[in-house]
């Protein structure tokens, strides 16, 4: 049994969720606002937080940041509407364990919760790259990528891997390490986006006992732990200016100085940095140092988003089906043509991570051999309406079509007004939730 904090402002949904989760043997306490949730989290011990993304006094990301700033590593699952998937994926980089899209599928929620409670990272890049959970890909894009990896790996050059969230930047970093002279030395991955501002320097360079309140003993930093190996600095653009100065010194002089200590320690660390953003913009905005940029960008690898990788999508779909079959004990062999069409039309803002999650969900919900469109997240169907929209094609004089246009606009406006809370939207529109869902589906909202 786990104590779970549920942060959700849609009271009907919160009640349903509480009932479901308690039925599975857990205890739930809930809050509707960030302020109250943070207070509860400070006062009680929870093993998991289920966190809605849109809340009346901010976003789930704000609460997540506050919680991480306290040094808490509690697993947090973000629940989000499909429209917010892009941001939810960023939340993963800020320390969320996983995200799940609304309307929440109970089986999927249970699976994600159990994984988070068992601290079992969703089969991720944290393990050995030789593990068959990764595929090389079979396309001109994959060939070029691996040519770059093989060229740069044996050198000691600092590599900057740039690409959207979930495109495989950490995978590339691990491949470079595995193919380098440092392969049998440590590979340490650090998410600079999740480092608290105050503790970042101490995490990276260590500290001496008494360096600041709470520094009860000497602490070794990640640079020292990665000595002779590779340090993967994800989201490097998030480092504060002070820490950038210290990092530059460590890279130039190959020594580090723990906080509060006079001692300098020689280190031999290869840096692989990753970023979602174009760091040149951050340089123009004075939030990233140009000299540091040149230091970490001795060789750049740019990863393309999944939507631009052509037939790679099919390879990854097949691969993730096999992975999920093995993990969930299913026998899915193929995907129905309609579902395949949706997968092809969708633009994958969360790239491989999102695809992996969607396929895992489909496999979980499929007991036979063919996964159909019904196993896709509902909102994925709505977000990719078929190309031919009869409403737009109808002549001006067609009264039915005109009414539909008005109805669509009203539903859209109401949804935006209530931040996509469908219970509230249905109430305002004076229709039931089911009708709202079917109209949203019809209008591709
Ligand atoms: N070549 C691959 N084969 C199979 N799975 C892959 C491959 N590359 C990445 N993945 C999967 O895609 C997901 C995202 O990969 P990864 O963490 O490397 O992306 P990222 O770009 O570093 O993400 P972020 O920007 O969020 O840090 C992971 O679950 C990983 O297992």
From TrEMBL:
Quote one Gene Ontology molecular function term. Answer: sequence-specific DNA binding
Database matches in SUPFAM superfamilies: CheY-like, Homeodomain-like, P-loop containing nucleoside triphosphate hydrolases
Identify the residues that the record assigns to the Response regulatory domain, covering every copy: 3-117
Residues modified to 4-aspartylphosphate: 52
Whether Thylakoid counts among this entry's keywords is: no
Q: Where is the Sigma-54 factor interaction domain?
A: 135-364
Per its UniProt record, what PROSITE patterns does this chain match? RESPONSE_REGULATORY, SIGMA54_INTERACT_1, SIGMA54_INTERACT_3, SIGMA54_INTERACT_4
Enumerate the InterPro entries for this protein: AAA+_ATPase, AAA_lid_NorR, CheY-like_superfamily, Homeodomain-like_sf, HTH_Fis, P-loop_NTPase, Sig_transdc_resp-reg_receiver, Sigma_54_int
Protein name stated in the entry: Sigma-54-dependent Fis family transcriptional regulator
Which organism encodes this protein?
Answer: Mucilaginibacter mali
Q: What is the lineage of its organism?
A: Bacteria, Pseudomonadati, Bacteroidota, Sphingobacteriia, Sphingobacteriales
């Amino acid at each position: 049994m786990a104590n779970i904090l549920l942060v959700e402002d849609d009271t009907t949904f919160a009640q349903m969720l509480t009932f479901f989760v308690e039925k599975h043997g857990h205890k739930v306490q809930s809050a509707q606002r960030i302020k109250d949730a943070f207070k509860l989290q400070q006062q009680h011990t929870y093993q998991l937080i289920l966190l809605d993304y849109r809340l009346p006094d901010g976003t789930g990301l704000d609460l997540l940041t506050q919680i991480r700033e306290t040094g808490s590593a509690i697993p947090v699952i973000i629940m989000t509407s499909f429209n917010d998937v892009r941001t939810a994926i960023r939340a993963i980089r800020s320390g969320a364990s996983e995200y799940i899209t609304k309307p929440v599928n109970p089986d999927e929620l249970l699976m994600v919760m159990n994984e988070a409670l068992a601290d079992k990272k969703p089969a991720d890049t944290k393990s050995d790259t030789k593990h068959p959970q990764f595929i090389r890909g079979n396309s001109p894009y994959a060939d070029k990528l691996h040519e770059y990896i093989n060229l740069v790996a044996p050198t000691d050059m600092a590599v900057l891997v740039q690409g959207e969230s979930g495109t495989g930047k950490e995978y590339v970093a691990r491949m470079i390490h595995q193919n380098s002279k440092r392969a049998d030395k440590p590979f340490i991955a650090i998410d600079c986006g999740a480092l608290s501002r105050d503790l970042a320097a101490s995490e990276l360079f260590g500290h001496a006992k008494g360096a600041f309140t709470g520094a009860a003993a000497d602490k070794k930093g990640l640079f020292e732990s990665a000595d002779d190996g590779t340090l993967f600095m994800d989201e490097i653009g998030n480092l504060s200016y002070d820490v950038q100065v210290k990092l530059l010194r460590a890279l130039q002089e190959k020594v580090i100085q723990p906080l509060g200590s006079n001692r300098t320690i020689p280190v031999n660390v290869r840096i692989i940095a990753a970023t979602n953003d174009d760091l040149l913009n951050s340089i123009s905005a004075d939030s990233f140092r140009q000299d540091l940029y040149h230091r970490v960008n001795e060789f750049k690898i740019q990863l393309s988003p999944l939507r631009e990788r052509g037939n790679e999508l099919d390879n990854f779909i097949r691969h993730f089906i096999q992975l999920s079959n093995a993990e969930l004990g299913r026998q899915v062999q193929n995907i129905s043509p309609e579902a395949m069409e949706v997968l092809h039309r969708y633009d994958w803002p969360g790239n491989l991570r999102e695809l992996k999650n969607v396929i895992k969900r489909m496999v979980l919900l499929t007991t036979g051999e063919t996964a159909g469109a019904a196993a896709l997240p509902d909102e994925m169907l709505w977000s990719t309406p078929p190309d031919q929209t009869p409403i737009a094609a109808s002549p001006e004089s067609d009264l039915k079509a005109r009414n539909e246009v008005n109805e669509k606009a009203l539903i859209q406006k109401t949804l935006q007004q209530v931040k996509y809370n469908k219970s509230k939207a249905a109430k305002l529109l004076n229709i039931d939730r089911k009708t709202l869902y079917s109209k949203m589906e019809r209008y591709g909202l």
